[in-house]
Amino acid sequence: MPDTLTGRYVTQSTAAEYLNVTDRTIRNLIARGDLTGYRLGARAIRVDRAELDALLTPIPTAGDHR
């Protein structure tokens, strides 16, 4: 089964690609508690796609005075 963003849970590699970061960054986010990793079996770890989207929340800039 191909690993895409159509499912709720994605691999660490897909999460890294989605956020345009390295696999190591995803592992660090999980280790710090900024992202929840869900263990599937002995080695596989999945990440909830909704949590990835939450990390992409826009921040206001100096030009946003609305």
Automatic annotation (TrEMBL):
GO MF terms held by the record: DNA binding
Taxonomic superkingdom: Bacteria
Domain (Helix-turn-helix) ranges: 10-56
Positions in coiled-coil regions: none
A Pfam family: HTH_17
NCBIfam families in UniProt: excise
Name this polypeptide is given: Excisionase
